[in-house]
Write a structure and sequence with these properties.
heterodimer; A: about 240 residues; alpha/beta; Rossmann fold; six-stranded mixed sheet; four-stranded antiparallel sheet; 10 strands; B: about 400 residues; alpha+beta; 2 domains; seven-stranded mixed sheet; about 20% strand
């Protein structure tokens, strides 16, 4: 089977003035379609840098990153926009909904950039909001919703263009335990439907929900464990 | 395909303008003031030009004055005599539609204890064919009056009203002083002077009431006139006919052409219209400086807006917005902002001129071209001054933008 993500000898070096920060060191990583992966690590471990590169928001300094067979390092900024639009659904810690814009339009936004016709766009946005349990709040503004509800809108938005990967960066970081559970359950359900999910977190209990946990320290992978079979065997 | 994004961007622009109403209004104020001053100044210029055109039409656009110029050793033969007029008439019968000594006689008229100052304009027959005379009663001066030196007069309606208290006074007589003797003149017609109120204002409140008399009547047959009033046939160039007449007269009088002067209304009209046009362009240009200030205001507010929405831009880029999409979003926003300012400014400007115009009751001319120009120009200002902030937004790095608090 083709790999969804394939990273080979990836390095990322930031220059801030005279200081060079080696954020990722010779990282090698393969991710298959349909996996639910948790990436863990302390702040400064390089997990956010990897997330930015995986999300095509940033380019590696050296090494190769193939996403769906496309080599990301060679794409122009606008091509990267297109790839983000079609292949990646982002869920952020700070929700990052567009303020003063109702949640229906927030969910429609990726489809606007994908040039989906307005009727089809609305239909899809309604369907997704229904799916995350917010079908009755489509005209609400983001600041009228609770944290958990905002994150559900963000998930609906991430799914808009039906991307192969969902990248979630500390999606429960700003949520209480109950909302966190709800969000994790949505991710699990999505994974069962066949979506690939990459979840960045520093909370072990959240990471436990994934089939595979990758731990970063000082820019290197120090642990890559699969525990997928166990749960399945229990059922 | 591109159309979808256009429409969405315009929607986003309106949303953003509406969600910051006070700020948007203050931003637009510069453009509103600039556009409204340019529009009102241009309209005032155009309206004045309209008034001037009216004025010249009233005098007669193809009218010219012929008179004795600078002659040091003036001889009695240098004046224009009836024989000269006949010769010119004959010689230029195709080119001139009217020729008559340029004379007017003024006299007090008292009737039934009412007194007016009468200005009796000397005309030839056929004057009404070259210059509009609105006859209300009776008739205009005719060939018969000219040949027989008839003691007749055609009164203006105001004069008739003041003397007789009514308009139809055909058949009555008035006593006027002509060449130091009192003469009784028979009123054969009454006409109405049609003038716009502005024209009357510009010409000054005349102390005199107008009337027409046959030019042959007050003067002896051998009288030498100082000037001639001519109308040139529309088919001919007024200035070249002038040159021909002057050289012909100079030939008759054994003088140089420089000794006779030819003055056309057209010349003056061109000069005055030119000055007026130049003046209004100059003032409009000064007013346009406020548009520059308005444009800088837009740039300032767009920069603030871009900084404020750094995070929003980051999100949009992460979700797939291309550089162009962000650039257009902000460009359309600044263009919309300034175009609305332009439209409001245009309406304000027109209103100002209308209100001003109604006070001095001149017909207001608003050039539709200047409206289109004003709105288009304000949009261009929006795009020009919005470009830098939009570019800044479009090229921002999504990671930095997302991290921005």
């Amino acid at each position: 089977m083709d790999k969804m993500i394939s990273i080979k000898n990836l390095n990322k070096v930031y220059k801030t003035g005279a200081v060079e920060v080696h954020a990722l060191k010779d990282v090698n990583l393969d991710i298959n379609y349909g996996e639910f992966i948790a990436i863990m690590g302390h702040s400064g471990s390089g997990k956010s840098t990897l997330m930015n590169i995986l999300g095509c928001l940033d380019r590696p300094t050296s090494g190769k990153y193939f996403l769906d067979g496309i080599e990301i390092g060679k794409q122009s900024a606008d091509e990267l926009s297109l790839i983000r639009n079609k292949k990646i659904g982002f869920v952020f810690q700070a929700f990052n909904l567009i303020p003063r814009t109702n949640i229906l339009r927030n969910v429609e936004l990726p489809m606007i950039y994908a040039k989906v016709k307005s009727g089809r766009r609305r239909e899809r946005a309604l369907e997704l909001l229904e799916k995350v349990g917010l079908g009755d709040r489509i005209t609400h503004l983001p600041n009228e919703l609770s944290g958990g509800q905002k994150q559900r809108v963000a998930i609906a938005r991430a799914l808009a263009n039906n991307p192969p990967i969902i990248l979630a960066d500390e999606p429960t970081g700003n949520l209480d335990t109950k909302s966190s559970e709800e969000i994790i359950n949505i991710f699990k359900a999505l994974n069962n439907e066949g979506n690939s999910i990459i979840l960045v977190t520093h909370e072990p209990d959240i990471a436990e929900n994934a089939d595979r946990v990758i731990v970063f320290k000082d820019g290197c992978i120090i642990e890559d464990r699969r525990k997928g079979g166990v749960e399945n065997n229990l059922v | 395909m591109l159309k979808i994004i256009w429409f969405e961007n315009i929607k986003i622009a309106f949303q953003s303008i509406l969600s910051n109403k006070m700020r948007s209004l203050l931003t637009m104020l510069g453009i509103i003031i600039g556009i409204s001053s340019v529009i009102s100044i241009v309209s005032i210029g155009d309206s004045m030009k309209g008034v001037m055109d009216d004025l010249y039409k009233n005098v007669g656009e193809n009218r010219a004055m012929l008179y004795i110029g600078n002659i040091e050793d003036l001889r009695s033969t240098d004046f224009f005599f009836n024989d000269d007029i006949k010769l010119i008439k004959e010689r230029f019968k195709d080119k001139l539609s009217y020729i008559c000594p340029n004379e007017a006689v003024r006299s007090d008229v008292t009737l039934n204890r009412k007194n007016i100052n009468l200005n009796m304009i000397c005309v030839d027959s056929g004057y009404e064919k070259v210059q509009e005379v609105k006859m209300l009663y009776g008739r205009m001066i005719n060939d018969n009056d000219i040949d027989r030196k008839s003691k007749v007069i055609v009164l203006e309606l105001n004069a008739a009203g003041k003397l007789f208290g009514k308009g139809n006074v055909v058949g009555k007589t008035i006593r006027v002083k002509l060449n130091n003797s009192m003469e009784d003149l028979l009123i054969v017609g009454v006409y109405k002077n049609e003038q716009s109120p502005m024209l009357a204002l510009m010409q000054g409140q005349s102390m005199y009431e107008d009337s027409y008399i046959p030019y042959t009547m007050p003067y002896p047959s051998n009288y030498g006139f100082y000037g001639l009033d001519v109308f040139v046939n529309e088919k001919y160039s007024i200035s070249s006919v002038g040159d021909e007449i002057i050289s012909y007269i100079a030939g008759l009088k054994n003088r140089m052409p420089e000794n006779y002067m030819y003055y056309t209304v057209e010349e003056e009209q061109v000069a005055v219209t030119g000055i007026l046009g130049g003046l209004s362009i100059a003032v409009a240009a000064i007013a346009a400086i406020s548009l520059l200030v308005g444009g800088i205001g837009i740039m300032n507010i767009m920069l603030v807006s871009v900084t404020e929405r750094t995070r929003e831009i980051g999100i949009k880029k992460a979700l797939g917005a291309r550089t162009k999409d962000v650039l257009f979003q902000f460009l359309i926003e600044s263009a919309t902002l300034s175009a609305i300012g332009g439209i409001v400014g245009t309406i304000t400007g027109i209103d100002l001129v209308m209100i001003g115009g109604s006070f001095i009751s001149i017909p207001i001319v608003v050039n539709p071209g200047s409206i289109i120009l004003a709105v288009a120009f304000s949009m261009i200002i929006g795009i020009f001054f919005g470009y830098y902030p939009a570019k800044k937004a479009a090229h921002s790095d999504p990671i930095d933008a997302l991290r921005y608090e």
